[in-house]
Amino acid sequence: MSWTRGDFTISTFPTEPGEVESSLFTIDGELMSLSHRRRFCDASGLPLFDLCRNKTGVTWFARLPGAPDNSEPIAIVAPRFYPLKDKIDVYVRNAAANGEEEVLQVRGLDVWKIKTHVYLNGNLAMVIERKTKLGIYVGKGPEWIVQVAQGLDLLLVPVIISIMAYTMYDTTSGSSYTGGHGTETDRRKSMHV
């Protein structure tokens, strides 16, 4: 995964000699947007969803392209306060389980933000490893290698990496979002962008 000025390309990782990377997704960020809106597209350029946050908040919301800002998001990303390490909760509705809410727990393993694990129901679902420790300090954007458990939706990878890149240089204050608890009205208020 490459990162330049808020834009990303997510590609396959060659595992055999002579194998070539192929693009899976692209992310186009609006740099001057107060909500830090990002458009996620497939390899052909068709939009899949948008990811943005409240102008003054830290919780991120993924919505289908063209959906109103007050519509039900398809995923909610809640960074948590955790000094010097990544700690993010990603809330998604599992279509295979009648829309039951699932929580992916993104947990950094070191203060250099080199290695991060993602857990689903206590099981390791994804391993994220930054390729170089010092590359981000010498003018080169970070690149990650991500291993994903079979059956996990690959669209979750760019969502998580996008937020990790955004919080690379700071420890954000924590999101107050705690999942689908409360009434529908309470959830809609917390989801307004």
TrEMBL record:
Pfam families: LOR. It comes from the Eukaryota. Gene3D superfamilies: LURP1-related. Belongs to the LOR family. This is Uncharacterized protein. The lineage of its organism: Eukaryota, Fungi, Dikarya, Ascomycota, Pezizomycotina.
